[in-house]
């Protein structure tokens, strides 16, 4: 079974530029998460999708961050414009059906804003 | 609202010694509890989970955890650690909404 795929693995941009990350979840997984993990901290939930609908985006800085999952499969997370404090690893995870099911994580995208 | 507290940011231990990583949670509803491990430059991998039933759960790599509802804790233990256990360990809580919240993590450093 293929895992959660993310790209790119690394990205360096200047502040005020825009950037997009892509995630392909495990086939059949309806739930998809985006997390931000700043160095030395735990993953912070940015947004949770159920199929192509948003379940929770309470921690997403909506003035600069956006995410979509148009067909309920792949997802993109965008930052525009980026700030220095957005430097972090962005993790995508997916979960299959059933309460308490394990979430599977991708390798993450390491973003450096200079 | 759910939250997870991992009081120990770092735990140094010698090889073959026992270890306990502490986790406390808060939630107003029934919870599901998880421990994930993160090796350098890698994603998170599930160690074990508690859904219901027996309060002692066993996971991979010899780890186990005990769910204590009265103390709202889910501490992770291993009787004898190896150098290869050096990693970051995250406790997480979820509920029937599948909202998955992580703690700040504990860095386990195993010394020879």
Structural summary, described in words:
- Chain A has strands at residues 5-7, 10-13, 19-24, 31-37, 44-50, 53-56, 65-68, 75-79, 88-95, 103-105, 109-113.
- By secondary structure, chain A is mainly β.
- In chain A, strands 2, 4, 5, 6, 9, 10 and 11 form a 7-stranded mixed sheet that branches.
- With 112 residues, chain B is mostly beta strands.
- Chain B is built from no helices and 12 strands.
- In chain B, strand 8 (64-68) and strand 9 form a beta hairpin.
- Chain B is globular, with a radius of gyration of 13 Å.
- The relative contact order of chain B is 0.34.
- The mean pLDDT of chain B is 93.
- The A-B interface holds A 4, 31, 33, 35, 41-45, 48, 50, 55-56, 91, 93, 95, 99-103, 105-108 and B 6, 32, 34, 36, 41-46, 49, 51, 90, 94, 96-105.
Describe the global form of chain A.
Answer: globular
SS field, number of helical segments of chain A: 0
The total count of helices of chain B amounts to 0
Distance between the termini of chain B: 41 Å
Describe the sheet with the most strands of chain B.
6 strands, mixed
Class per helix and strand makeup of chain A: mainly beta
Average pLDDT of chain A, rounded to a whole number, is 94
Can you count the beta strands of chain B?
A: 12
Overall pLDDT of chain B = 93
Could you give the order of the helices and strands of chain A? EEEEEEEEEEE
- List low-pLDDT spans of chain A: none
Low-confidence stretches of chain B: none
Order of helices and strands of chain B: EEEEEEEEEEEE
| DSSP strand content of chain B | over 45%
Structural class call of chain B reads mainly beta
